[in-house]
Design brief:
It contains 14 helices and nine strands. The protein has helices spanning 5-17, 26-35, 69-81, 122-131, 135-145, 148-156, 174-185, 192-202, 208-213, 259-276, 294-310, 317-323, 333-347, 354-362, and strands at residues 41-47, 51-56, 62-63, 90-92, 119-121, 171-172, 217-225, 230-238, 244-252. Helix 4 (122-131) packs across helix 5.
Length: 364
């Protein structure tokens, strides 16, 4: 069984250093964060079940950076699924794709590290331009598929967003980006190309939100560095017990990315969801339904199995902290057995709360 003490430690650090975790009003906390931010920002928290739960300047145009790749991925999938292009079609990496630059000057990605003459399928490029934000892959795709039909699609969506070959990274709103990732999510499991896109985003190379929350977070970041400011954005689909979309856009007059702000907003958004749906991750209550029972034990056993096969539990940091009832840095069958013992105890009329019961069990 793989140890996850690092994740649990990260979770405890968040609890210690970010008071938002124990706040009684996550909306007020979010307002304090966004309204006191020294630079421009926009935030959107959108519940799949109930719609917008929080919005701050979500209609304001801000530098989008690489976020435009999300709607472009949607466009690519529509073309591929229509049969106009095959996922097996190939494009060869030649010096032409460097556009007169050295490989190092092409920015993010992995293709730049490969040998000239390497062939890539459209399936690979579709994956790379999202998973690694690969700029050469994006160049290959946009040269092949063009932008005219893409702009028509954006117009059909009722937006004012357009791209040109001179400006492939237009300003966008948080509202627009929420719609983009929601549209992509609705296409999951409807075709191979859609699944390639979703898997690439699920395993994307960088996400400060995923680092802060753990669990299943589908994410695309966008990043621009200029002389006067830095832009860092993330659009995320957080596949929580109550799934939600989180959009964070921040223009920062700093010399480095304000990672702390991004992660504070992420934690606050997660708390806002917990508060809205009355989710409470008490010790042992892994599925946050206010009852500690065999279902919680089953979740732990499933997570332990995932650790053994994929190296990740699939749980959020909150869930992992709740699941580790013996506080030994492992989430495993032992924790599940303790939960089953408590369920039997409570079912037979025991009156101690779960935390007291576990403490007495572990420290007789």
């Amino acid at each position: 069984m793989k140890k996850i003490s690092a994740l649990l430690t990260a979770g405890m650090m968040l609890f210690c250093s970010v008071p938002l975790h124990v706040s009684a009003n996550a909306t007020e906390d979010m307002d304090k964060l966004t309204r006191s931010y020294e630079s421009e920002c926009a935030v959107m928290v959108f519940s799949e079940k109930n719609g917008v739960l929080y919005s701050y300047r979500s209609g304001q145009l801000l530098a989008g950076a690489g976020l435009i790749r999300l709607p472009y991925a949607y466009y690519l999938c529509t073309k591929i699924e229509s049969g106009a292009y095959s996922l097996n079609a190939t494009i060869t990496y030649t010096e032409d794709w460097l556009r007169g630059k050295s490989p190092e000057q092409t920015g993010a990605g992995v293709i730049k590290n490969d040998e000239l003459g390497t062939k890539y399928t459209l399936a690979q490029l579709l994956d790379y331009f999202l998973r690694y934000s690969d700029n050469i892959a994006f160049d290959m795709l946009i040269t092949t598929f063009g932008i005219d039909d893409f702009n028509e699609m954006l117009n059909a969506w009722g937006t004012d967003v357009t791209v040109t070959m001179a400006n492939l990274f237009p300003s966008v709103t948080a509202d627009f980006m929420q719609m983009c990732i929601q549209n992509l999510h609705r296409k999951v499991n409807t075709g191979e190309s859609w699944n390639i896109v979703w898997d690439a985003l699920l395993n994307s190379e960088q996400s400060y939100v995923r680092d802060a929350l753990g669990g299943t977070v589908v994410a695309k970041y966008g990043y621009i560095v200029s002389e006067n400011f830095r832009t860092y954005n993330e659009v995320c689909y957080c596949d929580n017990i109550q799934p939600y979309i989180l959009v964070i856009m921040a223009n920062q007059a700093t010399s480095a990315i304000d990672k702390g702000f991004i992660q504070d907003v992420a934690v606050c958004a997660d708390n806002l969801i917990d508060e809205y749906y009355q989710l409470n991750y008490n010790l042992g209550n892994v599925n946050a339904d206010a009852t500690i029972d065999a279902i919680d034990a089953a979740v732990i056993l499933s997570a332990a199995a995932n650790l053994g096969t994929s190296g990740t539990s699939g749980m959020s940091i909150k869930q992992e902290t709740s699941a580790d009832v013996d506080n030994n840095g492992f989430v495993d069958a032992v924790d599940a057995s303790y939960i089953l013992q408590y369920a039997a105890y409570a079912g037979s009329g025991g009156t101690d709360d779960a935390e007291t019961y576990f403490q007495n069990l572990l420290n007789p």
